[in-house]
Amino acid sequence: MTDMQQKASASTVPETGLNVPKRRRRPHPALVIVAGGILVVALTYVLPPFRNYQLATMGAYFCVTAGLTVLTGLNGQLSLGHGALMATGAYTLALTQNRWVNLPLSFAVAVLVTTAAGAVIGLAAARLRGPYLAGLTLAVAIVVPSVTSTFDETFNSDQGLSVILNPPPETIPMERWQAWLCWGAALVVVLLLALLIRGRFGRDLRAVRDDETAAKLAGINIARTQVLAFVVSAVCAGVAGALFAVLAQSVSPGAFPLTLSLFLVMAIVIGGLGSLFGALWGAVLLVLLPTLAQSVGEQTGSQQLEGNLALVVFGVVLVVVMLAAPGGLASIPSRISRLIRRNR
Amino acid sequence: MDRFIYLTFDGLSRGLVYAAFALALVLIWRAARIVNFAQGSMAVAAVYVAYSVTNATGSYWLGFVVALLAGLLLGVLVERVVMRFVDHSSPLNGVVVALGLVLVLQGTLGIVYGNEYQPVETPFSRDAFEVGGIAMLSRYDLFVFAAVGTVVVVLTLLFTRTAVGLRMRAAAFAPDVSRLLGVSVGGMLTLGWALAAAVGSLAGMLVVPTELGVHPTAMDVVFVSAFTAAVVGGLDSPIGAVVGGLVVGLLLSYVSGYIDVTVAPMAILALLVLVLLGKPGGLFSSSKARVA
């Protein structure tokens, strides 16, 4: 929350050319992460198994929303293709895991493959702006699941693959182990992101977003910065996808529909574009709102309400936030617009 | 060779539907500088309305007319209630709001009609005529040609021959001057959205029966194809949209016919990437003067 207030106060300061927000001394990201880790471990001992599973899902979502908020919020590239990148990570993990049954190895391969996928899309994306980029990534989100039908011998089309896992040590219940795994990965990813955007790279990202010409004059390689941002974000999505594969112990194209990508955009918009804490709130909402909608659906006894109410709620929230507070939750959209106007 | 002829006609028929849908995208882009990502869902909503009407009355044509009217109304609603209030300083805002609309529409349709594919009947047979032993066109294809052809002619006449069309073009290209000259710029914008949504609904009515049937996400792939068509033609050019639609339709038809149906989406993605990287303005982009 302090992050948002800080941004709001920064935007009310009259433009001085040097729009430097007043910085309060913040704790080092590593401290926050360690505190978060302790909190999560404590929670896993308190919560019942199903809640632990939900907690684990939050961790997986946190990975991808954190990466997406860095890309969209800090670098101004809107990607609707992160659901597809998650699918890439998930399928890679499933295929590797089913061959060698070695989880660390599978994660490493998933990271490698999504790095490559992110580099390919990022290379194209770096040359595109605004609606063109959105359209291209939308196409990726819709086309990638259909790949599973094209190469059905490898991917087993709509049925998908099941994932072989070595069971965790007997003293640890499955759900608790999953929560540890997901949050361990999420916290590592977020720590790396936080360190990355604190330093020179983060400054480059923002500079490119705010004014490409000025960034170029300052010696920043624009295309490289944008591609790197996309790759970093894609790796986060890949890790999240791999975690989802471990969570569900199966992968199928139905788990990565277009609506997943739209949900991710909603999560980062509502939490405040560009803020890692915002990404956390987004991830929490992504798990809680559908659960809430489902319980409402169960109470009214309407099956059609169950899955769809969450869509409506998310959509309404997205529209209302964008209309009522365009740049209110974070002052970034207006800066993106300046970037794009100058770029045309 | 027989197969080639058949696939060509099939591709033209599909292509015209994509052309109509791409035209809807171009209409809104020209009027408001927004790519309407909710176009597919809006079209599906109109098709569902037609489905209900047809089921209740037994008349396809009544449903057809109601779908177009529902499209008009939905376009007006979306523009007046939502899009008018979007902060247009960033193109991302319009995109994100449209995506929100996609979620709302898909969810609402799912709640009302359920998430199963429901088959929709065609008004004409889809069996192809044979000319000299070669299967060429079906009655339904002819219907598609006629419908899309009518739309293109009517839109062309509207924009080039009528006072309203002139006002719409003026309002889009020089809003401030038009306002000084007494053009209701806001009204023209609403009219543009309404027209585009109606054209989108028509495309939906034409394409849904040829696929699995009507479903809240039935138009997602069609949207991507039509977006590709619009980009191939240049988002600014109506003629480009028609040509782009035909290109996309033929590509899809040949790829599905000669390679495999499941490869078709990848062919679309490849075409989109090629055009975006090679000639992002599209093959027919003309307006250099107006920026954003």
TrEMBL record, chain A:
Transferase recorded as keyword: no
Bias (Polar residues): 1-14
Membrane topology type: Multi-pass membrane protein
InterPro entries per UniProt: ABC_transp_permease (IPR001851), LivM-like (IPR043428)
Chain ranges passing through the membrane: 30-47, 53-71, 103-125, 177-197, 227-248, 254-273, 280-297, 309-332
Keyword vocabulary terms for this entry: Cell membrane, Membrane, Transmembrane, Transmembrane helix
Subcellular location: Cell membrane
Domain of life: Bacteria
Residue ranges, annotated region (Disordered): 1-22
Protein name, per record: Branched-chain amino acid ABC transporter permease
Species whose genome carries this gene: Actinoplanes flavus
Taxonomic classification: Bacteria, Bacillati, Actinomycetota, Actinomycetes, Micromonosporales
UniProtKB/TrEMBL annotation, chain B:
Compartment(s) of residence: Cell membrane
Keyword annotations of the record: Amino-acid transport, Cell membrane, Membrane, Transmembrane, Transmembrane helix, Transport
Main location: membrane
Topology within the bilayer: Multi-pass membrane protein
Pfam families membership: BPD_transp_2 (PF02653)
Organism superkingdom: Bacteria
Transmembrane region(s): 12-29, 59-78, 90-113, 142-159, 180-208, 214-232, 239-255, 261-278
Family stated for the protein in its record: Belongs to the binding-protein-dependent transport system permease family. LivHM subfamily.
Protein name in the entry: Branched-chain amino acid ABC transporter permease
